[in-house]
Amino acid sequence: IGTEASLPALGELLRHEDTVALGCQALSTHASPKASDVLRQALSVARGAGRVQMISTLGDRQDAAAVPLLTRLAEDADLSVVRAAIVALGKIADEPARAAIAALRRSSRAELAGPVVEASMNAAEKLAAAGQDKAAATIYEQLLDGSQADNVRRGAFQALMQLDEDLGERRILETLRGSDTLLKPVAIAAV
Questions:
Q1: Pseudo-torsion of CA 140, 121, 118, 72, nearest 10°?
Q2: Alpha-carbon span 77 to 118, nearest angstrom
Q3: 93: left (phi over 0), alpha (psi -120 to 50) or beta
Q4: I need a labelling partner for 59 at 20 to 30 A (CA). Which of 25, 38, 87, 163 fits?
Q5: What pTM value is reported for the model?
Q6: pLDDT (tens digit, 9 = 90+) per residue, 86-138?
């Protein structure tokens, strides 16, 4: 139990709708990198609702090898699969995953705005936590765009202030002098 010898049995659980959740639960914390191989192989041939669980598990495992598959699934006919794939890409957040998310941000359908923003925020947070402030700031700057929802813009603004070398002082002053009435209260609250 818990060794690589268990992987074939866990892979078999992924083949059946009534046991896919058990398989995903066991594989989500399995120490072997081969557990991700089992998930990817099962997902590539799976049909039905179990795909969402497998996609989520690959995201939780931050399986970079799954990015090409997840990018394809982000264009699937099943909207729940598409949403799960987008969120999983945000959890992985390596360069290819971020590129896929950026492409989705530019061309995303309205019904995918939520998962695309969630994936973008997750990727930016992961980058910031790893000390990659410039890459994180690039994502947050894109989320400041006026086409984004108000709460997204506010959150991106707050995150950018934390990443700024001067802790947002310049950004706050520019916002207070500017005409963006949405962000002014955020800037005032930060003073």
A1: 90
A2: 20
A3: left
A4: 163
A5: 0.91
A6: 999 999 999 999 999 999 998 868 889 999 999 999 999 999 999 999 999 99
